[in-house]
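Journal club prep, shared notes

We agreed each person brings one worked example of a sequence with its structure written out as tokens. Mine is Cytochrome c-type protein. I'm keeping it raw so we can talk through how to read the token line rather than staring at a rendered picture. Sequence first:
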Amino acid sequence: MLKLIKGFWRWFRTPSRIAIGTLISLAFLAGILFWGGFNTALEYTNTEEFCSSCHMNDVVPEYRHSVHYMNRSGVKATCADCHLPHEFIPKWTRKIKAAREVYAHVMGKVDTKEKFEAARLEMAEREWVRMKANDSQECRNCHNFEAMDFTQQKTVADKMHNLAIQEGKTCIDCHKGIAHQLPDMSHIPSGFKKEE
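Then the structure, token by token:
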């Protein structure tokens, strides 16, 4: 038995073509299995089920009463559609930054409705800045000025969308609170409120 074990280790450490080929094949298979498992876990974090596991008592109920959840055409935007870029590098960058938000929940910073409401303004402002910086790209994946038929919009929407194009505004400039309640900003003096 000892001879068999020694023979196996000698074969395993000997750089023969079979050993190197086996090692490369095993490394390749392990890489595929790791990437598949990692990607599956990462995709799970894009689901409404994952988001609801922390946000069931705060933003999920208000989202479920929004036009992005239920509407006449049946087109539904999920959490990831609005909070996660579709492009590879921006998506990964956002995932890394989102880990901070998961950490805050796990560590108890926003794990109750009361704590969440206390931090809502700070979190909303951070999200508004992010969306302004990327020209509301997540919105534009579904809503695009070039594809809008302004003649089919209400007069005020037609006017405001044309004005937004002329002034170079982006979706989040006018549509804060479209899927979530706006944070309480009554304690901020009007001269100090951030531009909306």
